[in-house]
Amino acid sequence: MVNPRTATHSPLAVLVTAVASTPPSIPSNDRATTPTTAPNATSSLDRALHATLSRLVACLVNEKLVAAGLITLAACQKPAAALSLDAATSPTSSSNVIPALRRILVLGPYNSHEASLEQSTQFPDAHQIQYALSIVHSPICGPPCPIQEEEQSWALGDSHAYDASWAPVRFLDPDECESPVFTYTEKETAVPMTSVRALMHSVAKWNNFSLEIIDSICNEMASSVAHQAYAYDHPGPTPTLTSPSLEWEHSVVEGHATHPMHKARYALPPLAPVSVDEDLKRVTLHLATAPRTQLQIRGEFEQQLRPLIKLCGISDHILDELDHDDRVIFPIHARQIPNVVARFSYVQLLPYTVAATAQASMRSVVPDLMPTHVLKLPLGIKVSSALRTITPWTTFIGPGLPPVLEKLKLNRAVSTAIREESSIVAIHADTNEAKHLACLIRETATTALQRRGNHGSPIPLPELTTDGVAVCAALAERSPLGTGTPNVTRIWQLHTEAQRLAFLTDFTEKYLDAVLPPVLHNGFAFEAHQQNTLLRYDSVSGALKGFLVRDFGGIKVLQSKLRASTGITMEALPDGCAEALDLQEVYKLAYHTMFQMMLHRMVRALELHYNGKGWAVVRQCLRQRLPRQSDLYHLWLESPWVDYKCFVTMKIDGLYRDYLYTKVPNLILYQGESAGVASSATDVPALVTRDNSGDITSTS
Length: 700
Description:
GO terms for molecular function: acid-amino acid ligase activity. This protein is α+β, with helices and mostly antiparallel strands and about 700 residues long.
């Protein structure tokens, strides 16, 4: 606890003093390789709280649910009696000298009807500020302005050992946040936050949100903290080039990089709560039957599942009897049985079980007895954005998509779609009920590659023996977490900046070739974020070969554009979210998944964000693939503002199928920490130039 020096000090003065005089207890991810504290100096619970709080703060700032400003303190050559700053940030500093630079993020209410903190270039009313934390790198900000000496005196105390400036924050990433987050109390003190609830209650007050909804969301974030803490103490395997694909899936410790419910395992009744030590990687499936008339069946579901059923010990005689009774056998996740029993009286459980291994998504499992396929099953558990059930729209789209996939403009040398081959779902007037009973069968990565390999030709299994397949979410994870380098840097031995730039260029070129052409030519966007996209590489040399894309429940398609370019349309149920109203909906999803979620995390993992060089690579790769006069070129390479998906606002509004967006700076145009975002790509010099042969000739 930090007390104000005088009773007349404002909340801003108290908070800034508290942050400036407290060493960060948990370094940001960006400093994980050179931590300011020993690896075991903080508890796993503290680190987990930071993981959730940093994501929450970033969401609140970017979604404009709070106003945010950056105060930068630059040291003069004088001792600072009023502010005892973190000596650990500079090996030569003493406890009474301000480090060369200290950045402090301050938060207050956002008022869209007046000159708010986010919009204003004036120093804010110090009494608006309620929260503050240390920032390790500058976020993307508006124009800075100096804090005048008289303002420093009443806002920051009487020390003049620093120059202070202020800037409104336009875009914040969780990696930029350090712990702890301080809150101002009624006792005129600043104390570190120990949960998300106080901050969320302030957000509710400032935005007139329902406290009941806010408390429900806080419960989900508390679940995220608890499960993240356990994951820190019990991390998965440390992957290598030779790791099997499931080992890569299980190496994901933090998961979603920007969602504050990233590790939530929040079960809703009648399901029992998920304990932190419950094993959701190795699971049991129960076989059950239901009348055929109660199920919508897509594809050859029964034929595909029959080998698994027979391996469970169900005889042909019993199967024939079931067929005669016109019933269908299907698996249910053991965790989902209470939901099925409570909702569907016609379902009959059978005395047969199947062991299975979950992928990164807990509802997608590979049966031990059928390793060639993945079963996607509903679970009444909330993770990040939604309840992890499966809607009738999702079970309908996937099995009907192969004809469309065959006609999409795809670079088959580097792009493989993992097909969803068949499905069932309960027939019910209320889709919120139907989504609790479903099963979707899709290929594994290996099965998909055998079916369709390079240039559309099947790859024989012997030729796949040196192929590695890694879920892209695992590439940016750190092993051992908190003290190690990202997996991608460690495994591919990217020790120098030149090596990291070369890897990023290869990665970006192949990724864009794999997923961009359908967006540009067909009005079709895969949901190609880190969990849905798999990197294919040579497990001996590490050479990148291409990407696989899975999970079609979140695609966006403009049917008129698809028909004009391919001659066919996508089969879809009415009122689904996959059909876009216009191309802008397709482009929004593509930008969110491709750049904000995939390439942004890769650029940061390779330490190429704050120097701007990673985004220069992305711009160059885009220039080579987008026609200069295309809408996408203007939207992605010339527009300084883009749409940003609002995770927290969507949770508050109860949305998961419909998306809400706000405007944020365009990361593609990011030039580096000191320069921010350019007004267009033409203002940014290319990092890499090529001669007519395509060889790299120079960098700038």
